[in-house]
Amino acid sequence: MFSLAYGLWKYIFNKTEFHVLILGVDKAGKTTLLEKIKSIYLKGEGLAPDRIVPTVGLNIGRIEDANAKLVFWDLGGQAGLRTIWEKYYQEAHAILYVIDAAAASSFDDAKSALEKVLRHEDLKGAPLLIFANKQVKFLLPLSLNDLKLLFSSCYLLEHHTASLG
Ligand SMILES: Nc1nc2c(ncn2[C@@H]2O[C@H](COP(=O)(O)OP(=O)(O)OP(=O)(O)O)[C@@H](O)[C@H]2O)c(=O)[nH]1
Ligand SMILES: [Mg+2]
Fold first, then answer.
1. Which residues are catalytic?
2. Largest Cα–Cα separation, the chain
3. CATH value at residue 59
């Protein structure tokens, strides 16, 4: 009887957990974005931008709403650290790929790193959001449309600034 009641309770109240992998080349603003998300959804949590250092391991953020739990995995984007990314692909449900929209010099690297991510078997069918970060009005090297063309393999390109919200 207890196990039946427990099973019913779990069925009704258990929330589905989704794993979102935050990827992108170094200095794109991944950790700043994660900390911003935390500060918005976890009231009071979240590091200020001046306390964020380049990521070597993994940063984790968990947020929860009425229906689901989201677990964000933020990995280091330096070239030598990108081999670690694929260890997380199998358990990832979605990819949030951050680019520094103000740094034209990083676009080629960001694009080829993204293409490599998308070629991986374990991510077939996983939704992808490309987050064009660090947007300062009128100062972008490329317009949002140009960025869309450059990253033409994307499904949806969102423009924003992680540090300002
Ligand atoms: N102006 C501006 N600066 C930003 C923004 N987001 C991040 N930065 C800055 O960009 C730099 C790199 O940010 P991080 O969040 O550490 O970048 P990252 O992608 O996590 O880098 P790695 O951990 O090395 O892969 C820091 O100096 C941030 O303050 C933004 O939206 N606007
Ligand atoms: Mg980082």
1. 78
2. 65
3. 3.40.50.300
